[in-house]
Structures are given as structure tokens and as C-alpha cells.
């Protein structure tokens, strides 16, 4: 991160430094201590020390290095006090040539430190953890969010989220999860798990499953930040680039997804001049980089294809300019590459726009009514296609069914509005 300015507020500097450096800090400490819970405690101790000292002594020239040095000193003190961990003291002191720890220049050890961050991401998304626990631990350890911030994002109490994170850490200890980078086929599988967690975090922010707000922008932005971090760590993977492209292109629409009264606005009714053009350019740039890698026969998958679909919307200056036939073709490819009910429902929408509502209804008819449990997605799309087919009474009924299923008040409001509009 850039050096602090002389006029910068110490508290702002601490917050900015923590967000930028916490993953590197916890990752390096986990490598040294082989204990992720202890590593986080040491990092938190360093953060508290900064809060106590920087307002009085000023912001250090290299804030991240200051935190790392302080945390390492606390770690050495911890092991010195614990007789049973004297071997760990030797390991930590050996890393500094037997001298009092001096923090090396972080920039001179970028490769080593970035490996620590990647190890931490893989550890946070360990297969022994549930998807919800992976998301919470990733936001905590890699994203640097507080337990309270994560709890607010997922609409649970702070104590509940704290227990979830604590259980996840205990699970890692119980299963003896290794703080090492996986290789070969295991790396590919684990990288898929990491991308799934980042996508889950973004999606919950972009289209919240429950609560009063249709979106939680801070959570979506955190998903984008994590995707950028992963891209920096795995720049030659077209799927990672595809994930980043997808999140940035979709994220560009957030300013237009609510009207001036705070009511949800669907994609085709959005004012596209409100879309974030910088995010679109970044997303399309990431997609172009992924396409170049794909041209060299690097394998691609669902995120690359979804980003290609999102790009079709981003390139259309008006809803009427959207190349729905191209989107329908891409969904056909996606359905073959990553089959599933959500893909089929979205494919039904694409076919309904590209050809006619009956074509979309035919695709949707092949999806079991209970394929997504009590999700509002299937009846919501069914209502949309029925409305376009002129079957308004049936459409209104489908919209009301979807409204009864959703746990999000914003989504419920738009479904009920559509039900009222479709009613004869």
C-alpha cells in the first residue's frame, strides 16, 4: 500500500493498513506457528498495539511492516512463556538469524508472502468445512472483516457468527488441515472450492437471500476484492480471470438496481447510464485476458462462460440491443459444461428472449418443480415467461407463489408488483 501522508488520520491509516495487509499478516504467522487461531490472535494483538500507539507516536513509514514485526515479537513472547512450545521459539528465532526479529522489506519478499496469502485462502476453504463456514472464515482471515461485520452481512447475531468461526477453526485443528499449497488435481479441485466461496460471498451481496434490503453492496464489493486478490495470486488461470470478469461486470449494475425510491429495478428496465463504466472496462479486460489464455488451450469453465454472458449485456447500450441469441447459445454451452437446475432456469429465460416465450417455457418444463426446493426462482421465471406469452392470469398466480417463497423483502415487493400488473 502507498506510504502514509503526514496529515492522514491515524485511525484511518490503521483501518486501511489492516484491510490491505491482514491476509499477508495472518498467512505469514500461520506459516510460522502452524496454528491459524494463534496466528489471528497475534495479528489482532498487533492491531490493538497500533490503535494504542499510532495516535501518540505517529503513523510508521511502513505500517504493514510495523504490524508484522509487532505480531512476530508477540509470537516469540508467547512461545517463550509456554514451556511446551520452546521448539517453536527456535523456529521463529531461526527465521531471524537468532536476533531480535526485524521485519524485512515486504516488497523484497512478494513471492513468499503472496504464497502465504494463497495458502491462507486454501486453508479457509478447506474441504472439511461447510460452505457457510468457508465463507465466514474467508471473510474473517482473508478479508480482514470483524465478526460483527460478517454477522451483519449474513443477518445473524454476532455471537452466532463468532461460534461459527470458532467451530471452523476447531475443525481445521481436528482434521489437521495442512497449511500447504495443494498440487495437481487436488489444487484444481481446491481452487474450484475457493472460487465457489468468493462467488457465494458476491452473490449474497448482489442479490441477498433474505432481509429487508435487496442488495448488500459492501458484501458484493468484498467478493470483488477477494476475486482480484485471487487473480493476482493465480494470474494464468482463465477461470479465475473469468470469475473476476463476471463479478466486476455484474457488480457494475448495482447503482442502477434500485430506483430513486429504493425499489428494485430488473435488468431490462435499468438506466444503463448509471452502470459503473470503470467496473465494466475492468471486467471486459479480465475477460479478454481469459480469452487469450483459452486460445492457448487453457481449460475454461462456468465462470468464464457466465462472464461471456454478462459481457453481452454490458456491451448493449440499450436493453433492446442485447444479443439474446448469442446469450442463448452460451447458456446451451454452459448447460453442457456445468449442468444444473439454476443454469436451466436461466437458459429458459434466454431462450424465451431469443426466440419466443414458448421456447423458454419448453426449457423450463424439463426442470423439476422442486429442483430448487422452496426457492422463488422457478415460479418467478415461470411467471415472467407466462406474462410474455399473454397468459396473464397464470402469470399473476406464479408471481404470487414466488413472492410467498422469498425471504427477501425487496424481491417480494417486485414480485407482488408484477403479480398486480399481470392481474386482469
From TrEMBL:
GO MF annotation terms: DNA binding; sigma factor activity
Residue ranges constituting the RNA polymerase sigma factor 70 region 4 type domain according to the UniProt record: 120-172
Domain RNA polymerase sigma-70 region residues, every copy: 21-82
Pfam families (alphabetical): DUF6596, Sigma70_r2, Sigma70_r4_2
Gene3D superfamilies xref list: 1.10.1740.10, Winged helix-like DNA-binding domain superfamily/Winged helix DNA-binding domain
Entry keyword Chloroplast: no
Entry protein name: Sigma-70 family RNA polymerase sigma factor
Organism expressing this protein natively: Flexivirga caeni
Keyword terms: Sigma factor, Transcription, Transcription regulation
Keyword check for Transcription: yes
Family in the record: Belongs to the sigma-70 factor family. ECF subfamily.
PANTHER family linked: BLL6612 PROTEIN (PTHR47756:SF2), BLL6612 PROTEIN-RELATED (PTHR47756)
Domain DUF6596: 190-290
Gene Ontology biological-process annotations: DNA-templated transcription initiation
Amino acid at each position: 500500500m502507498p506510504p502514509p501522508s503526514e496529515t492522514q488520520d491515524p485511525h484511518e491509516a490503521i483501518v486501511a493498513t489492516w484491510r490491505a495487509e491482514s491476509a499477508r499478516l495472518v498467512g505469514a504467522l500461520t506459516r510460522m506457528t502452524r496454528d491459524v487461531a494463534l496466528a489471528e490472535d497475534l495479528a489482532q494483538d498487533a492491531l490493538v498495539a497500533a490503535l494504542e500507539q499510532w495516535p501518540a507516536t505517529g503513523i510508521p513509514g511502513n505500517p504493514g511492516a510495523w504490524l508484522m514485526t509487532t505480531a512476530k515479537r508477540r509470537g516469540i513472547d508467547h512461545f517463550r512463556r509456554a514451556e511446551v512450545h520452546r521448539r517453536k521459539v527456535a523456529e521463529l528465532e531461526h527465521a531471524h538469524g537468532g536476533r531480535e526479529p526485524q521485519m524485512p522489506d515486504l516488497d523484497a519478499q512478494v513471492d513468499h508472502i503472496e504464497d502465504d496469502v494463497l495458502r491462507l485462502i486454501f486453508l479457509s476453504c478447506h474441504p472439511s468445512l461447510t460452505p457457510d463456514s468457508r465463507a465466514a472464515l474467508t471473510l474473517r482471515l482473508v478479508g480482514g472483516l470483524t465478526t460483527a461485520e460478517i454477522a451483519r452481512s449474513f443477518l445473524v447475531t454476532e455471537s452466532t457468527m463468532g461460534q461459527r468461526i470458532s467451530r471452523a477453526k476447531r475443525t481445521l485443528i481436528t482434521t489437521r488441515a495442512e497449511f500447504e499449497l495443494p498440487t495437481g488435481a487436488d489444487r484444481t479441485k481446491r481452487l474450484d472450492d475457493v472460487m465457489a466461496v468468493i462467488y457465494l460471498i458476491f452473490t449474497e451481496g448482489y442479490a441477498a437471500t433474505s432481509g429487508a434490503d435487496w442488495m448488500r453492496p459492501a458484501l458484493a464489493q468484498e467478493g470483488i476484492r477477494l476475486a482480484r486478490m485471487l487473480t493476482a495470486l493465480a494470474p494464468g488461470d482463465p477461470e479465475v480471470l473469468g470469475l473476476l470478469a463476471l463479478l466486476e461486470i455484474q457488480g457494475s449494475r448495482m447503482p442502477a438496481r434500485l430506483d430513486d425510491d429504493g425499489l428494485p429495478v430488473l435488468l431490462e428496465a435499468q438506466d444503463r447510464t448509471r452502470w459503473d463504466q470503470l467496473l465494466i472496462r475492468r471486467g471486459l479486460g479480465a475477460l479478454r485476458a481469459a480469452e487469450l489464455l483459452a486460445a492457448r488451450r487453457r481449460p475454461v469453465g462456468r465462470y468464464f462462460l457466465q462472464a461471456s454472458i454478462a459481457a453481452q449485456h454490458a456491451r448493449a447500450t440499450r436493453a433492446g440491443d442485447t444479443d439474446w441469441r448469442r446469450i442463448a447459445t452460451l447458456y446451451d454451452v454452459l448447460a453442457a459444461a456445468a449442468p444444473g437446475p439454476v443454469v436451466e432456469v436461466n437458459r429458459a429465460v434466454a431462450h424465451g428472449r431469443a426466440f419466443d416465450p414458448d421456447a423458454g417455457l419448453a426449457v423450463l418444463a424439463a426442470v423439476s418443480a422442486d429442483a430448487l426446493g422452496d426457492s422463488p426462482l422457478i415460479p418467478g421465471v415461470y411467471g415472467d415467461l407466462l406474462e410474455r406469452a399473454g397468459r396473464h392470469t397464470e402469470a399473476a398466480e406464479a408471481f404470487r407463489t414466488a413472492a410467498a417463497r422469498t425471504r427477501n423483502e425487496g424481491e417480494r415487493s417486485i414480485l407482488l408488483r408484477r403479480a398486480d400488473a399481470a392481474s386482469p
